[in-house]
Design brief:
Structural class: alpha/beta
Radius of gyration: 21 Å
Number of helices: 12
Shape: globular
Strand order of the largest sheet: 6-7-8-3-9-10-12-11
Oligomer: single chain
Low-confidence stretches: 336-346
Mean pLDDT: 89
Strand content: 15-25%
Largest sheet: 8 strands, mixed
Distance between the termini: 38 Å
Helix content: 25-40%
Length: about 350
C-alpha cells in the first residue's frame, strides 16, 4: 500500500484537571492523501479541534497526555520536539484558525505578519517576502492587495481577515492544511468564495486538507471523506456518499436529520438530538452515545469497535452494535434519513 501524506493511528489526547482526567480524543485514526479533503464533523466538544491542534503541536502543556501516532510524510509529530516543530509548523503543516481576529496580531500589519512567517522558514529578503505576501493576498481574492497588505486586522472585514489567514497558511505551500471552522460567522457569499479557494487547492493536487466543521452543508460541497466524531471518538467514517446516503450510526442520523430540506415546508421546530454531550471526565460506559440514543439495548453497555459491516464498502466503518439491515430499517422508520433515489430525506 502506498504511503499516505498523513497517517494518524490511535491518537489519544487527555488533560489532567482538578476534577479528573479529560479524555478529549480517544483512539482516533485516519489518513490523508494529496489532493484530498477529509472533513471532521460533530458537535462542540466532540474532539475535532483538539485532534487538529494536536497535529500542530498546539495542545502541549504540563497537564497534557498523548498516545498513539501521527506521521507526516513518515515523520512522527506526537513525539517531535518543540525545536522540530519550529521547522514543521507553517512550512509542512499549517492551520487556518476559527476566529481570525483573535489569531492575527492587532498591532502588526497584515502583510508584515505574512512576511514574518515566510522569513522564519526561508532565507529571503523582506521586499521579496512582501511581494510574495501581496501575490498570495491577490490569489485569495483580496482587492488592492498591495495597499491592503499595509492595513491592520481591524481594518479588514471578517471575510477579508479569513482570506488573509488562508493566504498566510498557503504562504509556504504546506503539505497539510488544517481548516478549523473557516466559514463560521461568514455570510453565504463570502463562504462560497472561501470554499472555492479550497476546491482550487484540492484540484492542484499539491496538498491535503483537513476540514473541521459542524456545517454538513459545507461538508457536502467540499469533502471527499468524512469522519463523524462524538465524545472524543470517531463513531463513523466513510466517503461523502457513504455518510450522506447510507449513514450507519444513530448519531450521524441525528446530525443529518437536523438539516432543513429546502424543497419541503419548513418544520415548526427544527429536529434536534435529545440530551447533551456527556462529560469527558465521567463518560458513559460502553457506547458514549448510548444515553441519547433511542435505539439503545443491552449490548450497548459494551464499547463497539470502529469497523466495517458492509462487504461492498470496506472503508465505511461505524461504532454501532445494530446489524446493517436493522439500522437501515430503523432509519427509514424514524423518517429522518431515507435512501429514495439517492436523496437525503430530513
Amino acid at each position: 500500500m502506498a504511503d499516505h501524506l498523513l497517517d494518524v493511528e490511535n491518537l489519544q489526547v487527555s488533560f489532567a484537571t482538578e476534577d479528573g482526567l479529560v479524555r478529549a480524543v480517544d483512539e482516533v485514526s485516519f489518513t490523508l492523501d494529496r489532493g484530498e479533503v477529509v472533513a471532521i464533523v460533530g458537535e462542540s466538544g466532540s474532539g475535532k479541534s483538539v485532534s487538529a491542534m494536536t497535529l500542530m503541536g498546539l495542545t502541549r502543556s504540563p497537564n497534557s497526555r498523548f498516545g498513539g501516532s501521527a506521521r507526516l510524510n513518515g515523520r512522527e509529530l506526537i513525539t517531535a520536539s518543540e525545536h522540530d516543530f519550529e521547522s514543521i509548523r507553517g512550512k509542512e503543516i499549517a492551520m487556518i484558525f476559527q476566529d481570525p481576529i483573535s489569531s492575527l496580531s492587532p498591532v502588526h500589519r497584515i502583510g508584515d505578519q505574512i512576511v514574518e512567517q515566510i522569513r522564519a522558514h526561508e532565507d529571503i529578503s523582506k521586499p521579496a517576502a512582501f511581494d510574495r505576501a501581496v501575490e498570495l493576498m491577490e490569489r485569495v481574492g483580496i482587492p488592492s492587495a498591495a495597499d491592503r497588505a499595509r492595513a491592520y486586522p481591524h481594518e479588514f472585514s471578517g471575510g477579508m481577515r479569513q482570506r488573509a489567514m488562508i493566504a498566510m497558511a498557503l504562504s509556504l505551500s504546506p503539505s497539510v492544511l488544517i481548516a478549523d471552522e473557516p466559514t463560521t460567522a461568514l455570510d453565504v457569499t463570502i463562504q462560497a468564495q472561501i470554499l472555492e479557494e479550497f476546491k482550487q487547492l484540492r484540484a492542484s493536487g499539491e496538498s491535503g486538507v483537513i476540514f473541521v466543521t459542524h456545517d454538513l452543508g459545507v461538508v457536502a460541497d467540499i469533502a471527499d471523506r468524512v469522519l463523524v466524531m462524538y465524545a472524543g471518538r470517531v463513531v463513523e467514517q466513510g466517503t461523502l456518499d457513504e455518510i450522506f446516503y447510507d449513514p450507519q450510526h444513530p448519531y450521524t442520523w441525528g446530525l443529518l436529520g437536523s438539516i432543513t430540506r429546502m424543497d419541503r415546508e419548513p418544520p415548526r421546530r427544527l429536529p434536534a438530538i435529545p440530551g447533551l454531550p456527556p462529560s469527558l471526565i465521567n463518560a458513559p460506559a460502553g457506547c458514549h452515545f448510548r444515553p441519547r440514543c433511542p435505539h439503545e439495548f443491552a449490548q450497548c453497555m459494551e464499547v463497539p469497535k470502529l469497523e466495517s459491516h458492509i462487504a461492498e464498502a470496506p472503508e465505511h466503518a461505524d461504532r454501532c452494535w445494530l446489524e446493517v439491515e436493522e439500522k437501515r430499517t430503523r432509519r427509514l422508520i424514524n423518517g429522518r434519513i431515507g435512501l429514495t433515489e439517492g436523496t437525503v430525506i430530513a
